[in-house]
TrEMBL record:
Residues 8-158 form the Nitroreductase domain. One of its GO terms (molecular function) is oxidoreductase activity. Belongs to the flavin oxidoreductase frp family. Keywords: Flavoprotein, FMN, NADP, Oxidoreductase. SUPFAM superfamilies: FMN-dependent nitroreductase-like. Pfam families: Nitroreductase. This is Oxygen-insensitive NADPH nitroreductase. Coiled coil: none annotated. The keyword NADP applies.
Amino acid sequence: MNQTIETILRHRSIRKFTEQPLSEEQLSAILDSAIAASSSSFIQCVSIIRVTESDKRESLAEYAGGQPYVATAAEFLVFCADYHRHKQIHPEAKLGFTEQTLIASVDAALMAQNAMVAAESMGLGGVYIGGIRNNPAEVSELLSLPHHVFPLFGLCLGFPAQDPERKPRLPRELIVHQDEYQQDLDRNLLAEYDNQVREYYRTRTGGNKNTSWSEQITATLDKEARPFIKAFINEKGFSLK
């Protein structure tokens, strides 16, 4: 095992940060690492908005569902699907295909993961903020996002002011399939994992949370998941066909 793999395996979401700012060199390395990520067909259809104005940070924290670390982290980056740049290059570009939405989403995730790994390799921490999709129209207006650009998620970065345990992930046997999809879920293995997650929450919350992973996803998938998103991205010129 090398240092890169060790950094990846140590990943935890950090939601409390010190007041120490990132150096210009650190931020530059993080952004360069993000930009170096793979790009489908070399389309490069992602833009990153670095938000530094405190009032905008406060608004984004509110739009994201009241997540204060959006306002207090040393850096906050918003990753956006972006074909506006391409439309300026080629006004007759055939846009609006769902495949283009997928390409932008995948590329943005690759860029953000590169940024996170780069940050963690320097002793920094971070957390992704999907909550900006709670109010995508307001976020778009705040950041002056034009047509053919919409916000996918945010990323808080900074020096950690907490040292949380690593959250247990599903065992490899439930994720990795050999040659074909294994349709029968190993319930015994799932039960073992549920117990691990339940113990993780008990330890992390001092016994105030007693939930398994299966119970958590049942609650999550029993409710709507931002049903307004489809209409919003359609208005922005995405996934029309």
